[in-house]
Design brief:
The complex is a heterodimer of chains A (342) and B (105). In chain A, 26% of the residues lie in helices and 27% in strands. In chain A, α1 packs parallel to α2. Chain A is elongated, with a radius of gyration of 22 Å. Chain B has 105 residues and is mainly alpha-helical. Chain B has one domain. Classes of the chains: A alpha/beta (342), B mainly alpha (105).
């Protein structure tokens, strides 16, 4: 009987990209080692409630993905201390003292949710009833949030918070927030049918499968109103309501509205962890600040370094299905790369 | 009154939570299509009377959502129905205009 040693592949990041790649690499006969900083797998999706376009449970998705990789080595609450080039492959040193020699590394470090306190004019962390999209999902998941009134009569959603914002250092569109705002507006209306809901947008970028149907549904079945104009200023009115100012750019008039709850659509920005890894492994950074793929059309999963691959939002903003598709593609790229070397 | 050489102008700001949208709501009851306008402006662009009368169905619906009186615009409509041919959301625009006229009456 022959003992076959399965080859190590280090996956940095235990979000959905890292997990999906680990699943594929297990199926392809490798030994994926998932390194996750946080105390649990799942990343941002693990904290979400429902996913568009079918309103499926994010928790279920992550749970199933976790089950699929039960045979993988998973290090939680662990960071990568260093990545050193060996004659063949790399040596990855982890914060828990483990050293791994491998020929392939997958970077799946994802994005950082934009810190809404940086947009001071929106008053996040200052006023009582201003929350973010992530806070709302946490509340949908059953976490208490005193900022959300028991029966809000008026709710506003602000698109593009920290996205398409040069001053905040993020020129990119975060892609998913328009659709998330439409989804969350519907979910708010389902919970509070008598509430009036307004979405404040610059452009509605509803590009994905069934996104546009959600938009029509939000207008038709939930009477959500879409106001084209970026909220310029938020203040607190007497009685704790949120006073919002914007320009209604379709009528060309200034607009004011008092709200019981304001939800900020925080976007995706570069993960500082990714920048740290890039420095360690001498990876190129693209002009948008995200990791630079070898080619943004043909080789999104490949880096400028042999044996180092990318998946998910470390190379730019992605939707969940895009991330999963990329993770599978990356696993195949890694497989081909390792086969070629044998 | 003494003329001090200055005056106070009324704010043109729309108070979104205070404007009276009951007319718009009545229209939506009768014509649910009024809710799904996405302000593309096809109707206004194709409108035969628009360039001469200022009529634009997009502006009519938007005006109702903002609690404005849109009767002067409506009176410019010749009911030719071209707007219903171009609406990408398939709103029965001509019927909507007639319904709105009836509500105003």
């Amino acid at each position: 009987m022959f003992l076959t040693m399965k080859e190590n592949v280090v996956i940095i990041g235990g979000g959905i990209a890292g997990m999906e790649a680990a699943r594929q690499l297990l199926l392809l006969g490798y030994n994926p080692i998932v390194v996750e900083q946080k105390e649990q797998l799942g990343g941002h999706v693990g904290k979400w409630h429902r996913l568009f376009p079918d309103m499926s449970s994010a928790q279920d998705l992550v749970r199933r993905m976790e089950e699929d990789i039960s045979e993988a080595n998973i290090f939680l609450e662990t960071k990568v201390n260093s990545i050193n080039r060996l004659r063949e492959g790399y040596q990855v040193m982890l914060s828990n003292g483990v050293n791994i020699a491998c020929r392939a590394i997958l970077i799946a470090s994802g994005f950082k949710l934009f810190d809404a306190t940086r947009k001071e004019e929106y008053g996040y962390g200052v006023y009582d009833h201003v929350i973010t999209n992530a806070d709302l999902e946490a509340w949908f998941n059953g976490n208490a949030d005193p900022r959300i009134p028991h029966a809000p009569e008026s709710v506003g959603f602000v698109h593009c918070v920290g996205s398409r914002d040069l001053k905040a250092g993020n020129s990119q569109c975060s892609k998913v927030c328009c659709m998330t705002a439409v989804k969350q507006a519907i979910e708010i209306k389902e919970r509070f049918p008598s509430a009036r809901v307004w979405c404040f947008y610059m452009d509605l970028r509803l590009f994905g499968k069934k996104y546009e149907d959600f938009y029509i549904g939000a207008q038709q079945d939930y009477a959500v109103q879409f106001v084209r104009g970026r909220i310029s200023e938020v203040s607190e009115a007497l009685g704790g309501q949120i006073q919002v100012k914007a320009e209604d750019t379709l009528t060309g008039k200034p607009l004011r509205v008092r709200l019981d709850l304001l939800v900020l659509m925080s976007g995706m920005s570069c993960n500082p962890e990714m920048t740290r890894l890039a420095r360690m492994a001498r990876l190129d950074i693209d002009s948008d600040g995200f990791l630079k793929s070898l080619d943004n059309i043909r080789s999104i999963n490949e880096s400028n370094r042999p044996g180092i691959f990318f998946a998910g939002a470390c190379t730019g903003t992605k939707t969940v299905p895009e991330t999963l598709a990329e993770a599978r593609a990356a696993a195949l790229d890694i497989h081909r790369y390792l086969q070629k070397g044998l | 009154m003494t003329d001090f050489g200055f005056k106070l102008s009324k704010s043109s700001a729309i108070e979104l939570d205070k404007v009276d949208t009951s007319l718009y709501e009545r229209l939506c009851q009768a014509e649910p299509g009024a809710r799904i306008c996405m302000n593309c402006g096809s109707c206004g662009a194709t409108c035969t009377a628009g360039p001469y009368s200022g009529m634009s169905l997009r502006k009519v619906i938007l005006g109702l959502q903002r609690g404005q009186d849109v009767r002067s615009m409506l009176s410019g409509c010749m009911l030719c129905g071209k707007c219903s041919m171009v609406c990408p959301r398939g709103i029965n625009t001509r019927h909507l205009i007639l319904t709105l006229c009836r509500i105003y009456d």
